[in-house]
Each structure stands twice: as C-alpha cells, then as structure tokens.
Amino acid sequence: MQLLKEYRLLAIIGTAWLFDAMDVAMLSFIMPLIKTEWHLAPAQLGLVGATTSLGMVVGALICGALADRIGRKHVLILTLALFSIGNLLLTVTPNITAFIAVRFLTGIGLGGELPVAATLVADSYQGTKRSKMLVLADSFWAIGWIVASLLAFWVMPVIGWRLTVLITALTILYTLLLRRHLPDTPIEPQTRPSYKTLWRTPVFRKKTLLLGTLWFIVMLTYYGMFLWLPSLLVMRGFSIVHSFSYTLLMSLAQLPGYYLAAYLMGKISRKSVLTIYLSGTIVSALAFSLASSNFAVLMSGAWLSFFDLGAWGTLIALTPSQFPQAIRGTGMGAAQSIGRVGAMIGPYAVGVLLQMKTPLTGIFGSFVVLLLLGIAILTWGIQDVDAQRKEGVSGEAKA
After folding, report:
1. What does the pLDDT look like over 80-101, one tens digit per residue?
2. Dihedral, 274, 209, 347, 83 alpha carbons, nearest 10
C-alpha cells in the first residue's frame, strides 16, 4: 500500500514534468513554422527563445520563494495553470510581438514549475529514496519530448500549429486533479524564508553560488549543443537529424540514462554519478561533432542524450537536498535561475562563434572546458550530504 502511494505521487509530479517538457519541445517544432508564416528574420526568431528563457529565470526566482511561503502544492498548481493559459493565448496571437509577450508569460510558469516540483518531491522522501524519486520524476521530461514529437510529426501537419498548441493548453484540466490528490508540506510562518536569508547566511550563499554555477554550465552546454548541432549537421549533409526517427531516438535514449542514474543512486554517491555522466557527455559530444555517417550521427547523438539528460536528472537529485526544508524552494529556485541564464547565453554564444568563423573543434573545446570546470566544482566545492530535515534556518546558519 505504501509503495502504491509513493508511485502515485511520482506519477502525479512526473506528469507535471511531462507537460513542461512537452511545451518546450513544441516550441522547437513551431518556430520553423512561424518563421515562414510571419516572414521572420533570424534575430526575431532568436528573441522568441530568449524571451521564454528570461521568463523561466523570473519564474524560478519568484515561484521558488513563494513555495516556501504559501506551500508547494498551491504554487505548483499556479505554475501549471499559468503556462496552460499561456498556450491558450498562443493559439490566437496575431503577430510575432504578441507571440513573444505570451511566451514570456508562459516561461514564468515553465521556470517556476520545475524547482517547485523538485522541492515537493524532496520534502516527501529522505536519503537514497529521495534521490531515486527525483531522478525518476525528471525522467518524465523525456516522455514529454516523445509526446511532443508524436504531435509535431503526426498531428500538426493535419490540423496546424495553433490547434496542436490548443491540445497542450488542455493541461489546465490537470490542475483539478492536483487539487485533490497532491500532498503539501506544512509551512512554518515563524521561519520567514526569503532571499535575504539565503544570501546573508554564508553556508547557504556558498551552496547557492556553487550549485547555480553548476546549473549554469549544464544548461549552457545542453542548449548550446542540442539547439545548434542538428543545424550544423544538416549543413554537412546529414538531413536525417530533421527526421521523426532521429527525434524519437534522441528522446528514447534519455530514458535509460535516467533509469541507470536512479539505480546508481543506491550504489555510489550522487557526486560520483554526476561525474560519470558529465564525463560521458564530454566524450559523446565530441563524437557527435565528428560524426561522418548517418549511423555515427544516430549512435553518438543517442549517447549524448543518454549522458546529458542523465546528468540533468542527477543534478536535480542533488540540489534540493542541499537546503533545509524551510528554504528549500528558495534555494532550488535561485540555483536554477542562475542556470537559466546559461540557457540564454549558450545558443547565442554558439551563433556568435560561428559568425566569427570559429571551427567546430574550437566551439566544442569551449564546451569541454566548461564541463571540466563543472566536474572540478562538483569534486571540490560541493558536499554530497542531505541538509537535515529537522534543521531550521537558524540551525543550519550555525553550521
């Protein structure tokens, strides 16, 4: 009975992750269509992605702190409703200006949902169980990409992008289920969690900056690689990267990456798991950039998805457990908001480097240096211990 209860919670939270991923994926499929429909310049199209990422930065900062003040459940429902309403508005946008404005609103919901959902899972479990459940919850991200791929390749060509987005907007109905079945964490008003507490307490400030830097590196390299490599490979003659089979394989390859990470949580430390996955990301990314055949593109791309998203899931497991419950949402939101800045910079930086005629080896050399820096921060800067649930803000401050 207890096991059924645990996995029901995983399914409820994981589905929220699925919807988040589905929205992000759908945007990547829609952007080429609106480029043609509204005759957009590359800079305008780039602004769509940048605005969404900016909304995510704002959402992570605001919603993480709100989750500590008014409860995880209420804020999670709010974020899901926000990006569902955003998608509903997206279906009637008449031009690119309105589209960008709506995407900023949607980004707030998207950016707020992940840290709050992770915080709620972290509150519900302890130790190895907590780490496993966080990785498994994050694995629903891959399922969201698969669902979005099916909609993009099979549904969107028939009914158009607006009606397809309308389907994703129906996720607002899911908030009704959350209201009935989602547990919440009791809030202790006397602790008054805030960003002032986070930044003025040395131990919290150090953890936030180190974890935020690690998130920055992971997000910058992820978005820099996954948004640009397909285009670069098409320029080299590998049109397979725009096929359904390629998209589906890249999404499916993420799942065993997540599941192996969840399994390893009970065998070795989270730092060791993350080090393995970051190292695997380096090797597979280099192989992907040097691929000279369709088979090599598919295999190296699958390994890149396996390791890179597994690293993301492991970092999800590591971050919220570094903060006591009273400021867990604030700490998680702050760390991920720093990471979202990396998500904004990554694709833009690659574009600038390409415009400067930087060779692909130079671009990937930059990624390798950043990932090695991430491994160094992980190895010497971050402790692999859970913040004790019984510790309040004042207790941790004395540590």
Report:
1. 889 889 999 999 999 999 999 9
2. 90
Q: Using an 8 Å Cβ cutoff, are 254 and 21 in contact? A: no
**Backbone angles phi and psi of 366, in degrees to 5:** -65, -45
The answer, yes or no, to whether residue 193 has pLDDT greater than 70, is no
Confidence bin at 393 (pLDDT 50/70/90): very low
Q: How far apart are CA 202 and CA 293, in angstroms?
A: 51
Dmax of the chain from CA atoms?
A: 62
Query: Considering only CA atoms, which of 20, 302, 305, 22 is closest in space to residue 145?
Result: 22
Question: How do residues 222-277 score in pLDDT, each as one tens digit?
Answer: 888 877 766 666 666 777 666 777 778 888 999 999 999 999 998 999 999 999 99
- The contacts of residue 362 (CB under 8 Å, 6+ apart) are 353
The tokens for 149 are 């791929």
CB 320 within 8 A of CB 118: yes
pLDDT value for 399: 32
Other residues' Cβ atoms within 10 Å of the Cβ of residue 132: 20
Angle, CA of 311, 298 and 232, to the nearest 5°: 85
- In this structure, are residues 219 and 339 in contact, taking their beta carbons and an 8 Å threshold? yes
Is residue 65 within 8 A of residue 115, CB to CB? The reply is no
Integer Cα distance of 196 and 89 in angstroms? 35
Please state, in angstroms and rounded to a whole number, the distance separating the CA atoms of residues 35 and 222: 24
* Burial 345-379, CB ≥16 within 10 A → b, else e: bbbebbbebbeeeeeeeebbebbbebbeebbebbe
How many angstroms separate the CA atoms of 26 and 163, rounded?
12
- Exposure on the CB side of residue 120, measured as CA atoms within 13 A: 30
Predicted pLDDT of residue 109: 93
Q: 390 CB contacts (<8 Å, ≥6 apart)?
A: none
Contact 252, 193 (CB under 8 A): no
CA–CA dist 165, 182 (Å, integer) = 26
Other C-beta atoms closer than 10 Å to the C-beta of 394 total 12
pLDDT in tens, 122-171: 998 888 999 999 999 999 999 998 999 899 889 999 999 999 999 888 87
